Amino acid sequence: MDLAVPESRRAATARLDRFVTENRFTIAVVFPLVGAVTLLASAEGLLPDPLAFNPYFVLFGTLVMRLPLVAGVFPLVDRRAGLALIALAAYSYGIELLGVRTGWPYGEFAYGVDLGPMLFGEVPLGLPAFFFPLVLNAYLLVLLLLGRRAESTPLRLLATLATVVLVDLVLDPGAVAIGFWAYQDAQFYGVPWTNYAGWLLSGSVAVLVFDRGFDRAGLRRRLDSCEFMLDDLVSFVLLWGGVNLFYANWVPVGLAALLGAGLLWTDRFDFDLSETRFGSAVWR
């Protein structure tokens, strides 16, 4: 891999695109499957310390799976988008600290393992890397699924918010099952309904910030030209769908399959195994 500093954003974009394209199968399929096995082995006591729930392994694997999304949006991060991301990072830390300390708006909960370095010893320092993609992937999927109807602001925002909640209906039960965090009260696979009410609040803010911060037309053009841009959502379906399947969380498994169907519908979850090789794949 060329380690020289790119001379321009265009050169950096081309290099990122090439790297992700050449390693799509590893990033979008191998990493989440290995991640699911590792997390399950950790939760079931099959891995010794310091391998079990190693926070740096968790953070590293997460960042690798985020690469397609990062590469996809990289050329679109201008001053306005950059300010939006900074504001949203501050917001995500603030509302998570509020949630840990007061139980509002998600319900009383506590982290069971460290997900990388912890800010103030309470919330993951890498929180934006966990939070941003949940919202941005939902936003991009909605743009693809709605097509021209996405020009309707109310429809676009409501559909994105519904997809964000759908994503969390898959994530939270799986995360609780393996012990990432735990809630004091629980109604849905170890998760209280108040958590999803909280996601309606935090998700609404995040969706609005992304919608105002990024050039929607630019995102749509990038989606059309960048086939790997939703690979992070592919990883999400494989990882958390697999975890929920192991614990027989059937409703979350079905919802993960629904997300997978949306990706298939948009030709984002379709690859030819006969043409793949370790570290690369030809995706249709």
TrEMBL record:
<dbReference type="InterPro" id="IPR007354">
    <property type="entry name" value="CruF-like"/>
</dbReference>
<protein>
    <submittedName>
        <fullName>Carotenoid biosynthesis protein</fullName>
    </submittedName>
</protein>
<feature type="transmembrane region" description="Helical">
    <location>
        <begin position="55"/>
        <end position="76"/>
    </location>
</feature>
<feature type="transmembrane region" description="Helical">
    <location>
        <begin position="83"/>
        <end position="104"/>
    </location>
</feature>
<dbReference type="InterPro" id="IPR053540">
    <property type="entry name" value="BABR_hydratase"/>
</dbReference>
<keyword id="KW-0812">Transmembrane</keyword>
<feature type="transmembrane region" description="Helical">
    <location>
        <begin position="124"/>
        <end position="146"/>
    </location>
</feature>
<feature type="transmembrane region" description="Helical">
    <location>
        <begin position="158"/>
        <end position="184"/>
    </location>
</feature>
<dbReference type="InterPro" id="IPR017823">
    <property type="entry name" value="CruF"/>
</dbReference>
<keyword id="KW-1133">Transmembrane helix</keyword>
<feature type="transmembrane region" description="Helical">
    <location>
        <begin position="196"/>
        <end position="214"/>
    </location>
</feature>
<feature type="transmembrane region" description="Helical">
    <location>
        <begin position="235"/>
        <end position="265"/>
    </location>
</feature>
<dbReference type="Pfam" id="PF04240">
    <property type="entry name" value="Caroten_synth"/>
</dbReference>
<keyword id="KW-0472">Membrane</keyword>
<feature type="transmembrane region" description="Helical">
    <location>
        <begin position="25"/>
        <end position="43"/>
    </location>
</feature>
